[in-house]
Amino acid sequence: MFDMLKVLADGMAASRLRVNTLAANIANAETTRTPDGGPYKARHVVQAAADVPGSFSDALEKMSLQSPQVMAVIEDQSPPRLVHQPGHPDADKDGYVAYPNVNVVSTMTDLMSASRLYQAHVTALESARSLQNEASRILTQA
Questions:
Q1: Is residue 57 pLDDT above 80, yes or no?
Q2: What is the radius of gyration, based on Cα positions, of the chain?
Q3: CA angle 55, 59, 62 (to 5 degrees)
Q4: Which residues pair with 81 in a beta bridge?
Q5: What torsion do the CA atoms of 18, 19, 25, 29 make, to the nearest 10 degrees?
């Protein structure tokens, strides 16, 4: 039972980090100047599950007891989006402004998915706590 609660809590933490990272990407989709210089660079959460050798049923059993771990939050190294705006204060000598490499539509879709995953973790955690309380109640009556 405690393993299951740990897996759910780890999953919630990873989902929350993903939601926060995606929200930051959307919030900075028009940021052309950062303290580091240049436009904001999109960030991505990298998660990985532990390597599970063996049969499919062994892997499924082990994966149900392990949550994917957040390995890193990395910056997207793809080039910025260039827009011709000669009057913009951040325009280069040719009149192009470097905007962040954030695709708002796909990022919003990812954000909805991450938000739903977080909600699923919350629901599963509430169910696990309810089952734990019911089991405790049954044990105290016996």
A1: no
A2: 22
A3: 140
A4: 99
A5: 150
What average pLDDT score do residues 44-59 get?
Answer: 72
**Helix, strand, coil content of the chain in percent (nearest 5):** 50, 15, 35
Cα-based angle 131, 137, 140 (whole degrees, multiple of 5): 140
Instruction: Go through the domains of the chain in sequence order and give each one's CATH number.
Output: 2-29+43-77+102-141 (1.10.287)
Beta strands in 1-125 (DSSP E): 43-48, 69-75, 81-84, 96-99
**Residue 20 corresponds to which tokens in the numbers above?**
């926060």
Predicted TM-score (pTM) of this structure: 0.78
For 55, the token pair is: 């049969």
